């Protein structure tokens, strides 16, 4: 898979399992550090400096000499909450501020009432200002009951 992604100029992202929904409750995860170590050695990768990846979200990227990148998203083994710049919008108009928390903001009423772009922007700005500081996957594993498919990905 890594060779295929490299040949086509794709970025491969490897994500640790997050305990979301009833199917994730009580599950264990495999830290991807060992996978990363093997891939770094096999493809002679070097880590991309953090100042070069400010808009890439939670992934930590590694690159080969030709510029092919692979990202590792590690919400459990290497928490990145302090630098997370992601929110998600579900199909019902809910903005989920953190995958590991239940806080959400519904844009549906604004959208149904024909709110202006400025009003929607204000609502999003307010929501992001209240984004949780961190997830609780380990401390409260039963906290998140929605499935990733409902959240949107």
The percentage of residues in β strands lies in 15-25%
Mean pLDDT comes to 77
Separation, N- and C-terminal Cα atoms:
21 Å
Uncertain stretches of 5 or more adjacent residues: none
Count the E strands. Answer: 7
Largest sheet: 4 strands, mixed
Sheet with most strands: strand arrangement = 1-4-3-2
Number of helices: 6
What does this structure look like?
- The protein is of the alpha+beta class.
- The chain is 29% helix and 15% strand.
- It contains six helices and seven strands; from the N terminus they run αβααββββββααα.
- It has helices spanning 2-8, 21-24, 33-43, 108-112, 117-129, 148-151; strands spanning 12-15, 46-47, 60-63, 69-73, 88-89, 94-96, 104-106.
- A four-stranded mixed β-sheet has the order 1-4-3-2.
- β3 and β4 form a beta hairpin.
Secondary structure layout plus pairing:
Layout: H1 2-8, E1 12-15, H2 21-24, H3 33-43, E2 46-47, E3 60-63, E4 69-73, E5 88-89, E6 94-96, E7 104-106, H4 108-112, H5 117-129, H6 148-151
Parallel strand pairs: 1-4
Antiparallel strand pairs: 2-3, 3-4, 5-6, 6-7
Top keywords for this entry?
7 strands; globular
Task: Write a brief caption for the model.
The protein is α+β, with helices and mostly antiparallel strands.
